[in-house]
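User: My collaborator and I are trying to settle a disagreement about how two of our proteins should look. Neither of us wants to argue from intuition anymore, so we agreed to look at predicted structures for both before our next call. Could you fold the first one, then the second, and keep them clearly separated?

Assistant: That sounds like a sensible way to settle it. I'll keep them separate. The first protein:
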Amino acid sequence: MYGLIDGNNFYVSCERVFAPRLVGKPVVVLSSNDGACIARSNEAKEIGVKMAQPWFQVKHLERSAGLIAVSANHELYGDMSARMMDVEARYAPRQEVYSVDESFLDFTGVCDDLMATGKAMRAAILQETGLPTSVGFGATKTLAKLANHIGKTADRKPGLYPAHLAQVCDFGRLQPQELDALFAATEVGNVWGVGKKITEKLKAGGIHTVLDLMRADSAQLRAQFSVTLEKTLLELRGTSCMEVDDAPAPRQQILVSRSFGTAITNVEGIIEACSEFVSRAAERLRGQGSLAGAVGIFFTTSPFRQNDRQHSVNVTVPLVRPTADSAVLVSAAAAAVRAHFRHGFNYAKAGAVLTDLRPVGQEQGELDLFSSIEQEAAAHTEAARAKLMTAMDALNHRFGRDSVRLGSTAAASSRDEIRVWATKQERRSPRYTTRWDEMLVVRA
């Protein structure tokens, strides 16, 4: 049996843990530069706020409906996610962290009363982190995901599903006729892996509910769609095609990008931004034990500013030797920026991507062009640089991000445009759990 644990309205719930005044109020979390609504409380959904809807379209609801908007606080959300996952991991031997607010647990052979376990786990998460969750159990990951959807919906919208399924839903306790009734009441688009386009095609072919999909001909679905949908059908019927992946494969590329809070017009500003993004990517690279064989950078003007001259740069720099050294990667990126930057443009976005990734220790040999003494010196230098990067990551993890950083990430420190690329977050809450100077203080 598998379990899927999901944080309810996760970003909003993280904000409410430290700001109880937001409980029961319509709340949205805004994206980079406070541009669009990327998370909504149930109350915000009820007053008509749509997912990814631009903020300017709903800003009037602040006065008319009491809508409250906060800027995304990803540092807080990431730390709260880690705390929630740690609690969940105590209840099963295998865990797959699927996203910032979801994880799969494998309960096969280790638990008899899943309903009691689910309730105990949900209560522990609420007590230790303050985050509300929904729990779903099923014989496959797809069924567990669907059970979670039903449990969450039964809690949020009483009447759509039986009340006893709210919050914790275990398909293993239900009779076949009960499951058929649930599947008949659930639209096919709510199945994990069935996207919008596939949903439209399925409905055009007469498949509107989960029960319709389960009764469809698997060979016909495979011929019309793909083997992926056929596997989804098998999972719905109880045949497991996906196991819990408690050791996810390393990413094949690492991308960090951001829109600027204010347009950048000089090369120093672009170098600073790209240096910051490469440093972030390099830290993730080391975290998964990989080396990068190439670093790419891009920066572009905004296509929405039609009165501005348009220019876009996208270049990849291959490296002589794969590396995870931030200094080497940043140096390559900075050189690429200097070579391709053009004056007279209002650059609005930039990013960095590390590609050609490979595990540490898996390196291609090269011709012996140096003496053994020079080779030993080079190896010693590389080992010392690796230790330096490890020390930098450890210090930043212990004392907070940017406690130790490369000088080029603050290259514009003597200019007026220092960190103008930084995202606008005019409504961001404090980072309560990761910054000493922003910790919540209670006075007697």
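The second protein, kept apart from the first:
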Amino acid sequence: MSELKKIREKKNLTQEELAGKSGISVRTIQRIEAGTEPKGYTLKTLAAALDIAEKDLLIPETLAEDNVVEEVIAVENKEVYNFTLIKIINISSLPFSWFPIANFLVPIIIMLFTKEKNSIVKQIISLQIFLAVICPIIFMIVAFLKLGKESVLLTMIVLTLTNIFIILRNAYELDKKNSLYFKLNFSFL
């Protein structure tokens, strides 16, 4: 609800009564109550007619910052996010988490076909590319150290479980807070 509507209703005024009292058209009052922020002359006139400070008619910054659209679309830095699709892109790495080279191919293919190329998707894919580079290096180091078959197998299992944990933890965070828990300070894309 807009600040103007709250104040108008608190003072028991109809839109028509406020229009008559202020000299501002009913249509302008309706636009402001629908979400347009009053400026200049309109702001001063309405504030004077309602006998309040001009700042009381403006949307408080804390409320504007807290106003987040859940699930399907959110706007941040002029990017529109489809969180359902982002979650699918993140989870699509799961079946190939055991095979580092393939774990980022499916998300890239989905990103390209759906044209969902926002910063969150790029972070998801960059993280999987990073893991695709790091995991084989760790695996090779363990293999070259010749610690035995058990250590090589254990390393493979730990690396796979780590990747699965990262994917699932990011999925949980996307579901709850529309952000990633694990992310890099850089992007490969």
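Some points you might bring to the call about the second protein. The chain has two domains: 3-66, 74-177. DSSP finds nine helices and two strands in the chain.
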